[in-house]
Structures are given as C-alpha cells and as structure tokens.
C-alpha cells in the first residue's frame, strides 16, 4: 500500500477504535499508578505529581503506599494524592480513572531475560487489568510490566473478555527505548540528546527492539560497523543497567522519566493537543502484519488518532525487522494463550 493510502486507512481504523474522546474535566485528569511503591512506581509518582493536567494521583500497590502518598502530598502542585494498598483498595484506586499506568511486577536479575519474568508478572497484570475493565473501562492503559511483548496481549485478552477492549487506548510503554536511542545517538554524534529523535519500532526485548537510525532526525550517518554497535547498545541497554545494579533490579529512574513523558503525552492528547506523536507497542496489524507492534502513533482525544507509516529503513534495518517477527509472534501467542488457557490461580 502507498504511504498516503496506508495513512488514510490508518486514520479510518483509528477513528473506529477510539469511539469517543475521554471526557475532559476542566481541572485535569485522574491518574492511577499500580505498583506505586516500587523502584519505578515511586519516582514515576513524583514526576506525575509535577505533571500539568494531573488532578488526582492515586497510588496503588500490594505493599503500603501511605508513606509515599504522604510524602508526595506536601509538594505544592494541584494533584491530590491518595494511597490505596492491597487488593481490597484496587476499586477505589481505579474508579473512574482517566489514565492507568502499570509498573507492578518483579524486575530482572543478572542472567535473566525479560521473558523469565512471565510466570510471575503475567498473573499480576491479568489481575490488575481485570480491575481496570471493571472500574474504569474507558481509561487509557499504559503497561510497563515485563515482558511487555506478552503483557500487552494479556491485557488485551482480559479487556476483550470483559467487553471493555478499546485497542486505541492500550499501550505497551516503549518510551525508554526511544530515550536510550536518542541519548546514545546524540553521544555518538556529539549533539544535545534533546535535539535527536530516533523512531524505535517492533517490541521491547532484545532483537525485537529496532531503532531505525537511518530515519533519525537529524540523520545518523555512520559506517556500518558503528551503526551496528550503536543499535546493539540500544537493544542491550536494559541488560546494561541490570548488570550494573548487580542483583538490585533493573532500570527504575530512567524508566520513570520515560513513563512520565508518555503519560504527559497521553494527557496532552486527551486535552485536545493534536500534535502528540509517540512510539508505543499497540494492538494493530496495520503497519507490520503482526497483531502487536511498536511504531510511531499520533495520539488524539480518543486514543490513537493515526498510525504513522513505518519509517523508511535501510537494508540492514529491513533484515532486522524480518528477523524479529518469529520472536515477537511467539511472545504475543504466549500472552494470548495465558488468558485462553490459564494456569490454576494461586
Ligand atoms: N517497559 C519498560 O521499558 C521497562 C519495564 N520494567 C519492568 O517494570 C516492572 C517493575 O519494575 P520495578 O519497579 O523496578 O520493580 P519493583 O520490584 O521495584 O517494584 C514493583 C512493585 O510492584 C508491586 N507489586 C507486585 N505485585 C503487585 C500487584 N499484584 N499489584 C500491585 N502492585 C504489585 C510491588 O509491591 C512493588 O512495589 C518490572 O516488571 C520490570 O521488568 C522495568 C524497566 C523498563
Ligand atoms: O531490562 C529490563 O529488565 C528492564 C527493561 O525492560 C529495560 O530497562 O528496558
């Protein structure tokens, strides 16, 4: 399909997805963080307390949240902070929320892959998304918990079963891959990272993370071996942090910054800003043929407003795109199968 025709089809599809805009209260939006006491949850909550447009910040975790909430509530910004701990408090945390961000779950230790987290995190995400379906079915949902390539399909299947699935409002957060790509490319080019923009497509694990360096702005023109090394560093960046933390978890502070940027983009789009573009991992076969894929999206008041065409790729990048398909497909099927044939609940 020609890019213009693909974009028009994508707009039509997005309009179907996003039935109605999220109601826009004049005083801002209610944001719930599930996993708010954790390594990501705490700094993310801090950044959200400082984010314009947040009217209510609801902190939920199975661990206590009262301390974090009390601490944040002293910061002089309009967001009202509330604490919700334990499964009985999930309803209050979620009821009527506009945006739900989920960093709940266990992080990697050295030697583990993100997929090694599946057995624990799949059930956590399923339970939390069941709550979203029940208490705030119109919310935008941003999933951070790994393995993102599988947890987003799990969320989608749970929402479908509850009749609450809106593919235009379900996102796997891949913003950290974009921040890393921008940072590392800027280092190589000797530029300010804020002036560099690299689209990152695919998924969020190893070879499924595909930074399209040849389509970066400004252009990243490097000899093949240096481009390969830069790509490998971006793909392995999560593992770089896991190794450096030596058993104390994975990226938390940079992830909080990435999720806060993504959340702020969602809130701006909900509020009517028509110029919000982010890469995220979403349920659509439009751009790649796979049922879930990360690609640049224009966000609008109702969720995804437009699937932007995939950036132009050079030969190596196209090969990498083809090479990742098997892994991504298997991770998606694993998530779908978890909901279709669930193991006994503990
Ligand atoms: N998408 C991405 O780019 C990234 C994803 N991650 C993932 O984010 C997740 C969280 O990482 P960290 O914050 O470092 O872990 P952490 O262990 O520091 O925090 C996780 C929090 O989740 C809570 N939690 C566990 N089960 C829960 C449940 N059923 N309901 C509510 N809360 C629950 C824990 O009590 C804890 O406070 C991990 O799965 C990690 O792999 C981490 C970095 C980047
Ligand atoms: O590497 C991990 O396990 C955490 C993560 O997803 C990242 O930092 O990109």
Automatic annotation (TrEMBL):
<dbReference type="InterPro" id="IPR022383">
    <property type="entry name" value="Lactate/malate_DH_C"/>
</dbReference>
<keyword id="KW-0520">NAD</keyword>
<feature type="binding site">
    <location>
        <position position="121"/>
    </location>
    <ligand>
        <name>NAD(+)</name>
    </ligand>
</feature>
<dbReference type="GO" id="GO:0019752">
    <property type="term" value="P:carboxylic acid metabolic process"/>
</dbReference>
<keyword id="KW-0560">Oxidoreductase</keyword>
<dbReference type="GO" id="GO:0009507">
    <property type="term" value="C:chloroplast"/>
</dbReference>
<dbReference type="GO" id="GO:0006099">
    <property type="term" value="P:tricarboxylic acid cycle"/>
</dbReference>
<dbReference type="Pfam" id="PF02866">
    <property type="entry name" value="Ldh_1_C"/>
</dbReference>
<dbReference type="InterPro" id="IPR036291">
    <property type="entry name" value="NAD(P)-bd_dom_sf"/>
</dbReference>
<protein>
    <recommendedName>
        <fullName>malate dehydrogenase</fullName>
        <ecNumber>1.1.1.37</ecNumber>
    </recommendedName>
</protein>
<feature type="binding site">
    <location>
        <position position="255"/>
    </location>
    <ligand>
        <name>NAD(+)</name>
    </ligand>
</feature>
<dbReference type="Pfam" id="PF00056">
    <property type="entry name" value="Ldh_1_N"/>
</dbReference>
<dbReference type="InterPro" id="IPR015955">
    <property type="entry name" value="Lactate_DH/Glyco_Ohase_4_C"/>
</dbReference>
<dbReference type="InterPro" id="IPR001236">
    <property type="entry name" value="Lactate/malate_DH_N"/>
</dbReference>
<dbReference type="GO" id="GO:0030060">
    <property type="term" value="F:L-malate dehydrogenase (NAD+) activity"/>
</dbReference>
<feature type="binding site">
    <location>
        <position position="146"/>
    </location>
    <ligand>
        <name>substrate</name>
    </ligand>
</feature>
<dbReference type="InterPro" id="IPR001557">
    <property type="entry name" value="L-lactate/malate_DH"/>
</dbReference>
<feature type="binding site">
    <location>
        <position position="180"/>
    </location>
    <ligand>
        <name>substrate</name>
    </ligand>
</feature>
<keyword id="KW-0816">Tricarboxylic acid cycle</keyword>
<feature type="binding site">
    <location>
        <position position="108"/>
    </location>
    <ligand>
        <name>substrate</name>
    </ligand>
</feature>
<comment type="subunit">
    <text>Homodimer.</text>
</comment>
<comment type="similarity">
    <text>Belongs to the LDH/MDH superfamily. MDH type 1 family.</text>
</comment>
<dbReference type="InterPro" id="IPR010097">
    <property type="entry name" value="Malate_DH_type1"/>
</dbReference>
<feature type="active site" description="Proton acceptor">
    <location>
        <position position="204"/>
    </location>
</feature>
<feature type="binding site">
    <location>
        <begin position="144"/>
        <end position="146"/>
    </location>
    <ligand>
        <name>NAD(+)</name>
    </ligand>
</feature>
<feature type="domain" description="Lactate/malate dehydrogenase N-terminal">
    <location>
        <begin position="31"/>
        <end position="172"/>
    </location>
</feature>
<feature type="binding site">
    <location>
        <position position="114"/>
    </location>
    <ligand>
        <name>substrate</name>
    </ligand>
</feature>
<feature type="domain" description="Lactate/malate dehydrogenase C-terminal">
    <location>
        <begin position="174"/>
        <end position="339"/>
    </location>
</feature>
<feature type="binding site">
    <location>
        <position position="61"/>
    </location>
    <ligand>
        <name>NAD(+)</name>
    </ligand>
</feature>
<feature type="binding site">
    <location>
        <begin position="35"/>
        <end position="41"/>
    </location>
    <ligand>
        <name>NAD(+)</name>
    </ligand>
</feature>
